[in-house]
Every structure is written in C-alpha cells, then in structure tokens.
Amino acid sequence: MKKEILKLRGVKVHFPVQAGVFNRVVGHVLAVDGVDLDIFRGEVLGLAGESGCGKTTLGKAILRLVEPTDGEVKYISQDDDETELTSLEKKDMDPFRKKLQIVFQDPHSSLNPSFTIFGSLQDPLKKFGIKSKEERRKIIGDLLEAVNMRREYMDRYPHEFSGGQRQRIGIVRALCLEPELIVCDEAVSALDVSIQAQVLKLLMQLKKEKNLTYLFITHDLSVTEYLCDRIAVMYLGRIVELCASEDLYNNTLHPYSEALISAIPVADLDKQTKRIVLEGDVPSPVNPPKGCPFHPRCPKATDICKTEVPTLKKYSTNGNEHYASCHLIDLPEIS
Amino acid sequence: MEDKNNIALSVRDLKTFFYTNNRCNKAVNGVSFDVEKGKTLCIVGESGCGKSVTAATIMQLLPTLSRIEEGEIKFRKDDKIINIEKLEKNGKEMREIRGSDIAMIFQDPMTALNPVYTVGFQISENLKYHTNLNKKEIREKCISLLNDMGIPLPEKRVDEYPHSYSGGMRQRAMIAMAMACNPKILIADEPTTALDVTIQAQIFELMDKLKKENDTAIILITHDMGVVAELADNVAVMYMGNIVEAGTADDVLRRPTHPYTKALLESVPVLGRGKNQDINPIKGSTPDPYNRPKGCQFAPRCNWQTESCDVMPEITQINETHQVRCHKYEQFFEKYK
C-alpha cells in the first residue's frame, strides 16, 4: 500500500506587486495558485513546466523557504502522525527541516566561497546535536565517499571544484541529516550532458540505498521521463496534468503537455515528430487570462475554455490514475 | 573550394590560441569544415570544447589576448573568395563583411542587446552602415523584419526598449538584427539555450524558414544532440579544440564512429524511450586546457584507449561525407554496427 509523505491542499503563493511612492500593493503575482498534490513515500515525482510556471516556488513553499499565502502542507511521518507544516511556529519547524531537504539549481551560487566544504556542511549537523567534531568529520567524509568523491576534499574551498563536483557537494549537504524527502530544484540543468548523466545515476543509486523520496523539479521532460514514477505538469501556477510518467508520453491528455512534448528535440532520427508550435509567450501571472489559463495559446480552444476554469479531474489510462484539467477530454471521469 | 559554387564558407586547419599569464590555451587546434549554401551545419560539444571560439574567429570577434595562429577561413562573396583571417580585425573590409554578409546570433539576448537603446535603433544600425536606404525606408524595413519574426504590433514594438520584450521576443529581435542585411552566413551560438522549449520551437521554425527562403548557410552551435537531430544537415562534433567526427546528420547520429560521439548520444535520456533506457555517463571530466593529454584528447575518458592513443590520430575519411579522428574507429565501428 502506498503511503503519503506529504499532502498539499490548495497551496497558494502570491507575491505582492508594489508600486508608487508609498509602495502600495497594486496586484499580486499568482506564482502558485491552488495546488493539490500527494507525494508518496519512496517515489520520484517530477514537476515539469516552463520558466515562470511556479514550479520552484511550489518546491520552496513545501519547505517553507517561501511562506505559502494559503493552503495546507501536511507531513505524514512513518508512524502515520499528521502535522500541518504551514501553521507551525518557526522554531517548531526545525525537526521537519531535518526530514525535508533541498538541492539547489545553481551549484556555483549555493556554496559559500569563504568556507571550506566542511565549514559549510557542518552547521546543520551542529544544530541537530552532533557535538563532537570528529563525528561530524566522519559523517561528512562518509557521504563524500558515497557520492564518489575523496574524503580529503572536505578541507578544500568551493572554487577548487568543477560544476559536477559542486552539485555532488550540494547533494551531500542535503543528505547529511538523513532526510526522507529531497526537493531537487533543477539539480542537473546547469551541468554538461556527460556530467548530468553522472549526477542522475548517483541520485538513483542514493534513492535505493537510503530509501529517499524525491520531488524532482525540472523543465527537461526527457529527464523526468527517465527518472520519475509520476509527473506533474504545471502551467501558470496550477497543475494541468498529473500521471504516471509513461502515460504522459503515450496517453497525453492535456493539449499543453502535448505541445510541450512535441517541442522537445529528440536525439533520435527515427523518432522525429511534427512540432506543435504554440503562439506567443506564457501570459503574466499577475493578470492570468480568464477561463482556462492556457486558452490563448491552445490550438484546440473552444468557447467554454474562455469562460470556465477547468478543474483537475480524475481519469484512467492504462490502468493508472491520470489527472488532467481540460474541458475537452473525451474520457469518462472517475470519482 | 574554387570550383564548388555551393560552398559559402570553408575553414581549413584553423588554430586559435589564447595567451594568459604566460600560458597558452590552444582553444581551437586545427579545425576544418565547409558550410554549404542553404544547409545547416551543427557544431556540437560540451562547454570548453572551443565551439564558441570557432564562431568568434570566423567573425573576427576574438578578445585581444588571443590570435589566429594558423589556418585559412575562405569566404565566398559573389564570385570573389576572401581570406577572412588575413583581414584586419577592425579594418574596412572586415567591417563590411561583419553584420552584412556574415551575421551572428548570440547566446544570451539579455546581455547582447543594449538596454539604453530601442530595439528599432539597434536593428537600424546595421542597415545604416551596410545599405543605402534613407531614414524612412530603414524604419519600414525594421518594422517588416519584426513582423517577419512574428512579433505582434511591430509598429509599436519597434520603439520599445529591450526590457519590455520577453526572452523569446528578445531572441527574435536578435535574429531580426542578424537577418537585416540578408546575410549569406548566419552563425547562431546556442540561440535557444536560455529559452523554454515552446519558445525554442518557435525560433527553430523561424530559422528553418530563413534557410529555405533566403538560401542562407547556417552554423548552429549547440550542446544538445536533440537539436542536432532536428535541425542539422551536417554535424561536426568537437572535443577540446578538435573536430573528432564530422559528416551528415545521418552519418553521425545513426552510425557514430568516434567513441566520444557515441558516449554523448548515450549520456542523455531520450524522450519516448521510457524508464528502462540505459544512460551511461562519460567517466571523468574534461581535462584542464593548460594540462592536456598528450595524443588523442579523449583518451583518458575513453574505454577504447590503447598505447597508440598517445599520438594524435589523423582525420580518416570513411566515405565521401563522413570523417573521424580516431585510431580504433574500425574496431569500434564493427562492434556497434
């Protein structure tokens, strides 16, 4: 039986837009606008979408690195204790920070250049009660070896490492508190292809060894398809499709996912398909279009799309649960 | 090249070195290729392999610490053949070619556009220097260029500043600028790396159209094998300043003969192959350019390395179009046929 580790209900993150002499709030950027999502223990959930669709903000909102404006994030422990994270006081959040970690996008800016690797990585261990320096060195040394780096590297400075090595240090940082869930925010996007494959393999190996759950945020659908069990596609702060990763490719339901998949260049001459070229750009999240947020760019849009906002409905493809929010889907809805 | 009319640009044994702190970085170390009219040549490689330097060398846009050491860049202008490497960097002839006959699209449209001038002004600069159009005609040409690039309301947009353009529109404005004088060769240096896939699809559509309508030769620099599969007629794979394999897209993607090309193709997951595909990382990382391996540059990371790899392999022609730089290519090709 699959058990949830996180339950998101109606999560919203709105950033105020200020203008004028008195910094009056003139509007809100609806970065994440009502997301319901369950993350199960031991799975890799991909979160895909174009830049500006709110995928990073959602990842950070789960860890309360940005405060959600509204909605619930429930953490369910291994003994089925539910805790609502968004209403906790800052200091009560601490034990959960240990369980939920993040790997950041840019390995060049996420390490402090004036500390050695050990200096940067020991702080969380200190905070969570590992008092002796010897022990801290041992933990970090073991983890460095686990990501195929040498133990001695912990006394070097970040500038001595290449991008791929720094990303692996970022992974060690996330791992050192033995978390249950890691949010990987574009963890491989800044890396060269040959290095990207090294880090992807490493992430999969660590998942098996340490029983981790990943929320894998990326704009690269070929990586998500390879890595993830389920994929959620976001557009303008909402999830438009959520399904098993093979179904997203084989049984695409939402026209946006379809266009996104067709736009990805495939390194295989036998698999070339016709690109569906979307007109225009992603609309501004300050003032999203009425009705379905995708309708101004959707090649299939009809009248109903202009007025009514579609909700995420449950369908079944290939025997798997498949959620999509579009008025034009021909499948029977499941309750 | 003399008797081949369809070749727009021919590069032979080009070497560009950088000199810093008394050290020499052989960024481009003996590169040869031809670019045909109306065809796309993709130069693929990881960061630091010299693909952007090759582009900058053709445009004579190299920084002062570097120079063209050896080699020829022959450019066919109408019926004349011009040796670009012999021209003065800022001389009259080079300035005449740059921007009008050979134009370039840069990687990051945010830094390549000047924020304090309107987009229209920046496009018209090119027309002012290279054509005899008057002010009014230039403005009309700018508007029609923006219109061709699919920018909505070009009459209004032409007077706007880059900050009010989105990323995709900025890149289209850059292409408009490059296409202003109908160049014979368009060099695109990672034109879509900073853009989303849906916008990337728009830009590709546009480049395909230009190629067909104007018979422009395109040099596309990229690190993405997917882009190569989609756009390229010819491919050159670069590694540490050398072209290790070159040929038609069919040759290189279907029958890779160099271990590096094969490794590159195997290291990225391909959409549609599902979860069970095997991806193989390339072991190690690219060597320090100041401390290179002796012979074949890929040898330390290659599974096929033997003693003979201590000597730089020569280019071997496999068939008319396909060439490779590897000692072991025959055995390698046999195994993966």
Characterization of the model:
The complex is a heterodimer of chains A (335) and B (337). Chain A has 10 helices and 12 strands. Chain A has helices spanning 55-62, 94-99, 117-127, 133-146, 163-175, 193-210, 221-227, 245-250, 255-263, 303-307; strands spanning 4-19, 24-40, 44-48, 70-76, 82-84, 100-103, 181-185, 213-218, 230-235, 238-244, 313-317, 320-324. By secondary structure, chain A is of the alpha/beta class. Chain A is globular and about 65 Å long. The longest helix of chain A has 18 residues, at 193-210. In chain A, α5 (163-175) runs parallel beside α6 (193-210). In chain A, 29% of the residues lie in helices and 26% in strands. In chain A, strands 6-7-8-3-9-10-12-11 form an 8-stranded mixed beta sheet, sandwiched between helices. A 4-stranded antiparallel beta sheet of chain A has the order 2-1-4-5. In chain A, β1 (4-19) and β2 (24-40) form a beta hairpin. Chain B has 337 residues and is α/β, with parallel strands linked by helices. Chain B contains 12 helices and 12 strands. Chain B has helices spanning 51-58, 92-97, 109-112, 119-130, 135-148, 154-157, 167-179, 197-214, 225-231, 249-254, 259-267, 329-336, and strands at residues 7-20, 23-36, 40-44, 66-77, 80-83, 102-105, 185-189, 217-222, 234-239, 242-248, 316-317, 323-324. Chain B has an 8-stranded mixed beta sheet with strand order 6-7-8-3-9-10-12-11, sandwiched between helices. In chain B, strands 2-1-4-5 form a 4-stranded antiparallel beta sheet, covered by helices on one side. In chain B, a hairpin with a 2-residue loop joins β9 and β10 (242-248). Chain B is globular and about 65 Å long. The two termini of chain B are 33 Å apart. The mean pLDDT of chain B is 89. At the A-B interface, α6, α7, α8 and α9 of A face α7, α8, α9, α10 and α11 of B.
